Amino acid sequence: MYICKLNKYFLNFNKELIALLLRMGMNPEDINIRNTLQSGDIGYITYMHGVFHMRECGYGLSFESYVAEGLHEFYSRYNPDKECMWVCEDSSLNNKIICSLLLMDRGNGSAQLRYYILESGYRGSGLGKKLMDLFMQFLKEKIISAAICGLLTSLKLRHGFIKNIASL
């Protein structure tokens, strides 16, 4: 487990992200970030994780089932005062989901970063960083003192996550 200790939440893109998207041949106006679940989201995000983790890690249906259970847990006990999900869509692809990330309340002022995934064609575009920025802003806004995640990446390191084997 990894932890991020924290020492206003906006959906508009900054100039740097717009420039990156344009350089990659993408129209920033086609990208939409929403923080509401819609019909099909749970299934599609489960599918994204199932396909990606089968291809990259060799994980099978048991992992896909684990993701589905976690997304069901989030949906069934969702508290908008303490939890949030960000879903990134590309309207040029009929609003295809291209990125997602969610923050789950874990009690005692802590939260968990879960189900972060970004379609490979959008890597390097700044969208992953944007979602991590929104995640961090939500933590600060809701005065959540720590966040945990299961896999440490360079993006998470840049946002202050550190390896920590001690429990919260």
Polypeptide structure, described:
The protein is of the alpha+beta class and 168 residues long. It is built from five helices and seven strands, in the order E-H-E-H-H-E-E-E-H-E-H-E. The chain has helices at 15-23, 41-57, 61-76, 127-141, 154-158, and strands at 2-5, 31-34, 84-90, 96-107, 110-118, 146-149, 161-163. It has a seven-stranded mixed sheet with strand order 2-3-4-5-6-1-7. A hairpin with a 5-residue loop joins strand 3 and strand 4. The protein is globular. Mean pLDDT is 78; it is low at 1-11 and 152-157.
Secondary-structure map:
Blueprint lengths: L1 E4 L9 H9 L7 E4 L6 H17 L3 H16 L7 E7 L5 E12 L2 E9 L8 H15 L4 E4 L4 H5 L2 E3 L5
Parallel strand pairs: 5-6
Antiparallel strand pairs: 1-6, 1-7, 2-3, 3-4, 4-5
In summary, what is this structure?
With 168 residues, the chain is α+β, with helices and mostly antiparallel strands. The chain has five helices and seven strands, in the order βαβααβββαβαβ.
Provide key terms for this protein.
168 residues, alpha+beta, seven-stranded mixed beta sheet, 37% helix
Mean pLDDT: 78
Q: In angstroms, what separates the terminal alpha carbons?
A: 10 Å
Percent of residues in beta strands: 25-35%
Which regions are unreliable across 5 or more consecutive residues at pLDDT < 50? Answer: 1-11, 152-157
Rg over CA atoms, rounded to whole Å, is 16 Å
Number of helices: 5
- Derived from helix and strand composition plus strand pairing, the structural class reads alpha+beta
Q: Strand arrangement, largest sheet?
A: 2-3-4-5-6-1-7
How many strand segments? Answer: 7
Largest sheet: 7 strands, mixed
Instruction: Give, in order, the helices and strands.
Output: EHEHHEEEHEHE
In percent, how helical is the residue content? 25-40%
